[in-house]
Structure to design on (598 residues):
């Protein structure tokens, strides 16, 4: 098919604004998939995506649509809406010429709406505004249009009113895609140039490479070269998604599809790389692709040492399917052999942890999440990066510490503005700008990353009854007073719960953690002390009371001394148990201890 009849577009929106549902309606009208095989969230291939009702991985599908008796090829990419997966959005936009911006007609513009549409504007996309959920009684179409124009500056006179649930307005959207989104630039007679959009592992065919062909053609038995690594492979098969994999003879300029080439090393498939013919020594790398940046780090250790190899294989498979998740071998004196892992955010961490448990049946100990700190050591001011609290050196050798800061854009109804400001202040936030848009307010704050990646999002949703939203970007590193807090259970340090944070928040955070552990750890027949310490100083403590067995129940006579003798014997036994007994911290406690309770 010629490039003038091709349209490549992404579907972008805030979380829960109806991207996947609208994609389902578009697929019903333009895909070869049979209606009996249709299901909700057809592009969400992961079980956890269906359970949580969110999109984690961007997915693509080719649609065929006839407009005015001319056949068109529409390549749709459904993108995630959560801030943790904004990298998936930027990656998808690079492969397209246009975007469908979905805005919930009952909620209006949200923080992630702003972030995604600005990414689309930076990519020079033609943007089609779609007001979704217009069938709901609470929809306020005119107010939302005004909100979009005031906040984003996009004309909404041609905005489409759609109900993805009922299908109203979807045919008109397909017409608008053909008329408004430009066809891709490129020539199939030029030298081969391909953008590597994504790569993942398939147990049947090996590594699958998702591509956008910029120029030239790619077909089976061709020799291609990865520019970043110089690796050369022979193409086995090329194909498209309908949404199931469908093998085709070739992919030409402007098309989106995939190929396989018996690739065994994922490191050769660098996301954003440029692929050319094996004998091409003149082409340059295609610019404009955003590098992934992990911001949250923690350790994964097998609960049982015999599961180490199984955990290693499971992480390898997860990494093949999600290259934004990284890991490396790591050993701990208290936890044994495990892995140090990097994530895009706390939701990303939860998703990977849940997949390990449900898909691979592996119980893991998850250490306290941390961000990356810059440490400068005495006497030569040597710089090192610390991601793990257990690697934190003695404070006497540290000259200074720098922590990462972000610029956060928070959108909230005006009525919750005071609570949002108080939350930002409690997180050491610095106010930058306030903008009022109708009954909503946009607050821009600079905040320490360590303060917001763990519980800020949940707290914001809780205090605003779910109406506020946040989007943030990493800005710089600043000097800070960071301390290491050890959690002691029954006088033994729990390495998995050791964490770093600012000294001003050490007491309050430690107290909350001790209280949550008290709720999560099962009671024993002896008292269990839960303590938080900085160095040798205890800053917080909770006590789990012991079960009390009634040892005097068997007494039926005699004087008081018999009862006191039995109670004293029981007391000594409890002390011996406390000295020798071990306390098992449940896996659920390790996960929940750093999450805010709603």
């Amino acid at each position: 098919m010629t490039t003038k009849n091709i349209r490549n577009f992404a579907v972008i929106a805030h979380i829960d604004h109806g991207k996947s549902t609208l994609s389902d309606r578009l697929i019903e009208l333009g895909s070869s998939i049979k209606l009996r095989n249709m299901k909700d969230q057809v592009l969400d291939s992961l079980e956890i995506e269906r359970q949580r009702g969110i999109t984690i991985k961007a997915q693509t599908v080719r649609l065929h649509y006839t407009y005015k008796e001319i056949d068109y090829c529409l390549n749709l990419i459904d993108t995630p809406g959560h801030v943790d997966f904004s990298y998936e959005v930027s990656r998808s936009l690079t492969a397209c010429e246009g975007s469908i911006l979905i805005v919930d007609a009952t909620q209006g513009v949200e923080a992630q709406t702003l972030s995604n549409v600005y990414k689309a504007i930076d990519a020079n996309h033609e943007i089609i505004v779609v007001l979704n959920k217009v069938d709901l009684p609470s929809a306020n179409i005119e107010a939302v249009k005004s909100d979009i124009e005031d906040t984003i500056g996009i004309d909404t006179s041609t905005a489409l009113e759609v109900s993805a649930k009922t299908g109203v307005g979807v045919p008109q959207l397909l017409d608008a895609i053909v008329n408004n989104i430009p066809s891709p630039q490129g020539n199939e007679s030029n030298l081969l140039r391909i953008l590597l959009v994504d790569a993942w592992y398939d147990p049947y065919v090996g590594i699958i490479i998702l591509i956008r062909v910029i120029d030239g053609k790619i077909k089976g038995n061709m020799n291609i070269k990865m520019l970043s690594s110089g690796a050369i492979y022979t193409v086995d098969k090329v194909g498209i998604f309908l949404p199931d994999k469908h093998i085709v003879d070739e992919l030409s300029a402007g098309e989106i599809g995939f190929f396989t080439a018996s690739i065994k090393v994922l490191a050769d498939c660098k996301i954003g790389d440029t692929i050319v013919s094996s004998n091409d020594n003149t082409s340059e790398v295609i610019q404009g692709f955003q590098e992934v940046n992990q911001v949250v780090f923690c350790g994964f250790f097998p609960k049982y040492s015999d599961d180490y190899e199984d955990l290693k294989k499971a992480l390898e498979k997860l990494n093949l399917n999600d290259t934004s998740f990284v890991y490396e071998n790591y050993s701990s004196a208290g936890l044994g052999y495990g892995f140090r892992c990097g994530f895009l955010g706390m939701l990303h961490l939860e998703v990977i942890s849940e997949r390990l448990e449900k898909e691979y049946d592996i119980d893991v100990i998850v250490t306290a999440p941390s961000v990356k700190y810059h440490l400068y050591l005495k006497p030569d001011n040597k710089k090192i990066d610390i991601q793990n609290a257990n690697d934190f050196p003695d404070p006497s050798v540290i000259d200074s510490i720098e922590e990462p800061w972000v610029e956060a854009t928070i959108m909230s109804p005006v009525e919750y503005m005071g609570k949002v400001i108080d939350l930002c202040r409690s997180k050491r936030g610095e106010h930058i700008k306030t903008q009022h848009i109708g009954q909503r307010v946009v607050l821009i704050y600079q905040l320490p990353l360590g303060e917001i990646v763990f519980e800020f999002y949940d707290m914001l949703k809780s205090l605003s009854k779910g109406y506020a939203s946040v989007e943030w970007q990493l800005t710089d590193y600043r000097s800070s007073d960071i301390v290491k807090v050890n959690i002691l259970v029954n006088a033994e340090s729990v390495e998995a719960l050791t964490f770093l944070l600012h000294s001003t928040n050490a007491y309050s955070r430690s107290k909350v953690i001790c209280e949550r552990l008290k709720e999560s750890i099962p009671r024993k027949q002896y008292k269990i002390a839960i303590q938080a310490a900085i160095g040798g100083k205890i800053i917080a403590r909770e006590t789990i009371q012991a079960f009390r067995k009634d040892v005097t129940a068997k007494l039926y006579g005699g004087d008081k001394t018999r009862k006191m003798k039995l109670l004293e014997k029981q007391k000594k036994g409890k002390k011996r148990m406390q000295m020798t007994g071990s306390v098992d911290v449940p896996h659920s406690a390790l996960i929940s201890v750093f999450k805010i309770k709603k």
